[in-house]
Design goal:
277 residues, alpha+beta, 7-stranded antiparallel beta sheet, two-stranded antiparallel ribbon, 14% strand
Length: 277
């Protein structure tokens, strides 16, 4: 399946191939998303960058945070998505697509037994990090090319991990929500979820007149035993609070396996880092 490539400065990978625009469906989606957020989308900063991110124990248990696919040069540049062959939601058949260029990598995870990174690469890496030992994939890509480092090689495989795994979207709030909530871009993309929302959420969702859309979003309004539950005020910025990022909304299952969060990224995290331009 083709994807629009992004540039080396980390322009996000679109989450889905774009069908002909359906303004009425986009308005229905925006109104439905507003129900989940408790405020209209127009009240959020239209110039900010928004990201849909995935966390939870499942990513650690299956080793996905250190999957070599993340550090392929094409993925770091944003030319290709990282495809995870693991459904995030019940009844979902589409594999989630991740944007390595906009994801955040952590190079502080190497232990004392890990081979050291080459000194020249390590120095350049430190200069390109936006905070601590954190770097966007798009800022890592030119360093990997310049120094000829294969981060997927056994010698370097334990020196990095994905700190924030960002789903592929175009950086806008509507697309981050479409991606996080797996609605796709047309009514035909909706998943036939059967999980029942909590009673208080069922009342709120009743304002969504499209029955399939209402049922789809109800999956994200449960107690977490079947479906996901909204975190409300307990949502976090996935460890990027000190870097100025803010949570918009988040959902998790009741077993700690999957967390989905919408973040408003700070300019520092959204990039590009000055030293990479």
């Amino acid at each position: 399946m083709s994807r629009e490539p992004s540039t080396a400065t980390g322009s996000p990978i679109p989450s889905e191939p774009r069908p002909p625009q359906d303004g009425d469906w986009d308005r229905q989606l925006a109104a439905a998303f507003a129900v989940l957020l408790g405020r209209p989308l127009g009240e959020y900063d239209p110039d900010a960058t928004y990201a849909a991110c995935v966390a939870g124990n499942l990513l650690y248990e299956v080793g996905f945070r250190r999957d070599p696919a993340w550090v392929r040069p094409e993925a770091l540049r944003g030319a290709e998505p990282v495809v995870w062959d693991c459904a995030l939601f019940d009844d979902a058949e589409r594999s989630p697509l991740f944007d390595a260029s906009g994801s955040i990598f952590d190079f502080s995870t190497a232990d004392d037994t890990s081979p050291a990174l080459p000194a020249d690469f390590a120095a350049a890496l430190g200069s390109a990090c936006f905070a601590r030992i954190l770097i966007r994939g798009a800022d890592l890509a030119p360093l990997v090319a310049q120094y000829g480092i294969d981060l997927a090689a056994p010698a370097h495989a334990d020196t990095w991990t994905v700190f924030v795994a960002r789903l592929a979207s175009d950086g806008t709030l509507p697309d981050a929500l479409r991606t996080a909530l797996a609605t796709g871009r047309t009514p035909e993309d909706l998943i036939p979820f059967t999980a029942e929302p909590d009673e208080e959420w069922a009342d709120a969702l009743a304002s969504i007149t499209h029955p399939e859309l209402r049922a789809h979003l109800g999956y994200f309004c449960t107690d977490g035993e079947e479906g996901l539950m909204p975190l409300g005020a307990d949502a976090t910025a996935c460890g990027l609070e000190d870097e100025g990022c803010a949570p918009i909304a988040a959902w998790e299952d009741g077993h700690g396996q999957v967390d989905i969060a919408i973040l408003q990224l700070s300019p520092l995290v959204a990039g590009p880092h000055p030293s990479s331009t």
